[in-house]
Amino acid sequence: MTELTLGNLPRRHPWAFVALAALAWVALYALLDPSAEAIVRALPVVRESSLGDALHFFIYDAPKVLLLLTAVVFAMGIVNSYFTPERTRALLANRPAGASNAAAAALGIVTPFCSCSAVPLFIGFVQAGVPLGVTFSFLISAPMVNEVALTLLFGLFGWRVALLYLGLGLAVAILAGWVIGRLRMEDHLEEWVREMPKAVSAAGAAESLSAAERVVAGLNSVREIVGKVWPYIVLGIALGAVIHGWVPENFMAAIMGRDAWWSVPLAVFIGVPMYANSAGVIPVVQALLAKGAALGTVLAFMMSVIALSLPEAIILRKVLKPRLIATFMGVVAGGILIVGYVFNAVL
Q1: Which of 61, 101, 141, 206 could be stapled to 173 by a disulfide with Cβ–Cβ 3.0 to 4.6 Å?
Q2: What are the pLDDT digits (tens) for 276-322?
Q3: Is 175 within a domain?
Q4: Which domain holds residue 283?
Q5: What pLDDT digit, counting tens, does each position of 53-105 carry?
Q6: DSSP 49-88
Q7: What is the total count of domains within the chain?
Q8: Angle at 278 between CA 125 and CA 264, to 5 degrees
Q9: Distance (Å) of CA 321 to CA 190, 194, 298, 315, 316
Q10: Considering the domain boundaries, does residue 56 fall inside one?
């Protein structure tokens, strides 16, 4: 008989492993604040100084965000085991307009695709017969309204901000995709993309996984996603700590405050040339807010970095003609501007 160890526990007793992991997670989370406070006070710094505040910000937030991210990515990894790329494409094909855009945006939340996957996903969707506007709804939602962004927003700002971001982010993805679909711009795909043969969906042949295999899929997601983004989280929180400790409040309030009407378009303009994911941007957003920046302005900046990055546009140039890329970026930028002003108005 094989000896039971932590290494084989997920495969032999998956739900026992999940229960033990949950208990350990709760215990660690409860220790975060007192541990951060004790560590800072043990260091040769004044706790109430700028350096003390910055160190506490970093020591508390870095493990907090990583713990939240690990829990959600593990759960979403199990959910994602039901959604192969083939099955995702099949779910989006042959649906009425509007409803298909909403379905595409919703699937973008629970599918582990980012802007770096733009070209292969786009090609796969075209081959599966997914309409152009529906494809864009998915490609906007997947990087912008994903489990990483929502987890960090919930952990740093609470459920109200996370839910409002979810609703408005989905609205941007749905409406932008619908508008692009109504413009009938299929002729602005590159010729080699339009000439590809249509693929037959293999979604019906999806393998049925056991509970143990789904738990292992969740662990693999943690290893892949958290293993990939943790440096961005640490770097983002470190930058946030610097802003938190030393940037004057009046300075950020003047540049990114709600009273300056031009702050939202300026934030979008600054964000587009940048390249980062939500893991690196959201801790910076938290620090900017603490210094007096308006929520809508900094979230518009975040959304433009994630959903409208210049590197993604360069990648999409392989499959889209310049006019379609410009239309895509213009429509999404308009939606993000609306989101920024709505956030500033209601919060």
Answers
A1: 141
A2: 556 667 777 777 777 777 888 888 888 887 777 666 677 677 778 88
A3: yes
A4: 85-199+234-346
A5: 888 888 888 888 788 778 877 877 777 677 665 666 666 666 676 788 888 88
A6: SHHHHHHHHHHHHHHHHHHHHHHHHHHHHHHHTT--HHHH
A7: 1
A8: 100
A9: 6, 12, 31, 12, 9
A10: no
